[in-house]
UniProtKB/TrEMBL annotation:
<protein>
    <submittedName>
        <fullName>Helix-turn-helix domain-containing protein</fullName>
    </submittedName>
</protein>
<dbReference type="GO" id="GO:0003677">
    <property type="term" value="F:DNA binding"/>
</dbReference>
<dbReference type="Pfam" id="PF01381">
    <property type="entry name" value="HTH_3"/>
</dbReference>
<dbReference type="InterPro" id="IPR010982">
    <property type="entry name" value="Lambda_DNA-bd_dom_sf"/>
</dbReference>
<feature type="domain" description="HTH cro/C1-type">
    <location>
        <begin position="87"/>
        <end position="144"/>
    </location>
</feature>
<dbReference type="InterPro" id="IPR001387">
    <property type="entry name" value="Cro/C1-type_HTH"/>
</dbReference>
């Protein structure tokens, strides 16, 4: 069933920046993936803009915990610095290898403590290191198939 706004002078077909907090709340609680995608795209463009502010307000009142968590995560992701995104990507890639830090460190040519410093964000990894971890993950997946 398509999202419909009640008691608002805008429709879900209008730009998200016109929905306001009430429209956002309706999308969180009664909307679907297409509605959430519109919100996510808007907050990626302006993570601290008016749409993000309306979303924050709506998230406080939302009843649908699942969709609220999805949109809260999207907002947090949009507000990450480039450095934070690199660290988050490295953590995900390391997790996907399903290896201990010691084993992964050995495979990529570093020490466990150095890998830990990358994963904790204490030291910024090089693009080459991130790519080596991604390659280990690809190799591990192909070994399992």
């Amino acid at each position: 069933m398509a999202l419909r706004f009640r008691n608002l002078e805008v429709t879900p077909e209008d730009p998200v920046d016109r929905w306001g907090a009430e429209g956002m709340l309706a999308a969180i609680d009664r909307g679907g993936v297409d509605d959430w995608r519109k919100i996510i795209l808007a907050i990626r463009v302006a993570p601290y803009g008016p749409v993000a502010a309306d979303l924050e307000e709506a998230l406080e009142l939302a009843e649908s915990r699942g969709s609220a968590q999805l949109l809260r995560s999207a907002l947090e992701g949009a507000r990450q610095t480039p450095e934070q995104r690199v660290i988050e990507r490295l953590r995900m890639l390391a997790f996907e290898t399903d290896m201990s830090q010691g084993d992964l460190a050995a495979r990529i040519g570093t020490s466990r403590t150095r890998l830990n410093s990358y994963l904790s964000g204490a030291v910024m990894p090089s693009a080459a290191l991130v790519e080596r971890v991604a390659e280990v993950g690809r190799t591990r997946r192909s070994e399992l198939v």
